[in-house]
Design a protein that fits this description.
This protein is of the alpha/beta class. 37% of the residues lie in helices and 26% in strands. Helix 9 packs across helix 10. The chain is globular and about 65 Å long. The chain starts with a helix and ends with a helix.
Length: 334
């Protein structure tokens, strides 16, 4: 892989310019921390003395948070939350992250997607997660809510330079919403990038998609063991989705960019020795990759910038973000 550092730096400096719209499954991560005191008499479980609770934007919300940190809040979200206590926490977190949340729909029949992680520690050890509790409505959104989401997409999309469809398959991105968003993005010549965990074939005529290795294997129907398999899988996804490019994230093995006419680029991981937590790293890659494309970068340079961003956020616990200055420093050290 040949890399032009000067060009890379020029694209990173432009990441604060594009406006990005994120459509998908909005969620919050509730991080509860405590100090382990003793074993309970009621059951063989730890008793934690609560120390703090942190609310972090997760899933599609995390993608918007990553964008906001880089482009000074030129980002909006469209999705659904419940009419509950957790929805207030979510909206407050969006406002603190400088994310425009006026297009979010409240649906009293649904739960606000909340992933609660309870972690404990003692003075001689690191903090460790003990249990995770997921709060969500798994059924697809109802027709009335779907219509309201589509109305908001039609209003908002022309205001933005690029769109991210973030699909965690928790019910927001119905077939109609997906098709409407892609149709409008193409009509207005907007970049549209898909981050979906399965059913990749339903995302047709998009700019690009960023599946991980396991989801790619499920989509193409065979195991990927080497670069030849990656090429075959990427070509199949390009053919089935009519995407302009596919970025497959391969964990510790880096990334693989597939473009038409059998153009393949393998991108290595930049800091294998400093990985602490990969939570949310995929959202970071999609967010930064989309920003870079909207800033004028080609697919390979956009992927490299996304890779650098991922290498920075995995050094932190939980869903994390990075800044343009951090990206520039890391790029100069490559």
């Amino acid at each position: 892989m040949n890399m032009d550092k000067e060009k890379l730096v020029s694209y990173i400096k432009k990441l604060n310019e594009p406006k990005i719209l994120v459509v998908g499954d909005l969620a919050i991560d509730e991080m509860i921390y405590g100090d382990a005191e003793r074993i309970s008499r009621e059951a063989p479980v730890l008793i934690l003395q609560h120390t703090k609770t942190t609310i972090i934007l997760g899933s599609a919300s995390n993608a918007s948070n990553n964008v906001s940190t880089l482009n000074d809040g030129k980002v909006g979200v469209i999705g659904v939350c419940g009419d509950d206590y957790q929805s207030g926490l979510m909206l407050d977190a969006f406002k603190k992250a400088n994310v425009d949340c006026k297009y979010i729909i409240k649906d009293p029949s649904r739960k606000t997607i909340t992933k609660t992680r309870i972690s404990g520690s003692i003075t001689t050890s690191i903090t460790q997660q003990i249990v995770r509790v997921d709060r969500q409505t798994n059924l697809p959104i109802c027709r009335e809510t779907e219509n309201r989401v589509i109305d908001n997409i039609e209003k908002a999309l022309p205001e933005y330079d690029a769109v991210i469809l973030s699909d965690y398959h928790i019910g927001t991105l119905t077939k109609r919403i997906i098709e409407t968003t892609i149709k409008l993005a193409n009509k207005y010549n907007k970049i549209i990038v898909v981050d979906a965990q399965k059913d990749l074939s339903i995302y047709k005529n998009v700019t690009s998609m960023t599946p991980n290795l396991p989801d790619t294997e499920k989509a193409v129907g065979f195991l990927i063991k080497n670069d030849e398999d990656l090429q075959k899988a990427g070509d199949k996804l390009l053919s089935e989705t009519k995407a302009n490019a596919v970025l497959i994230t391969c964990g510790a093995d880096g990334m693989f960019v597939i473009e038409p006419k059998r153009k393949y680029t393998k991108i290595p991981v930049f800091n294998k020795s400093e990985v602490f937590d990969v939570t949310g790293a995929g959202d970071t890659v999609t967010a930064v990759y989309t920003l870079a494309l909207a800033a004028g970068a080609d697919y390979v340079n956009a992927a490299i910038i996304g890779n650098i961003a991922a290498s920075l956020v995995v050094r932190q616990f939980g869903c994390a973000t990075t800044t343009i200055n951090e990206l520039l420093d890391a790029a100069k050290k490559l």
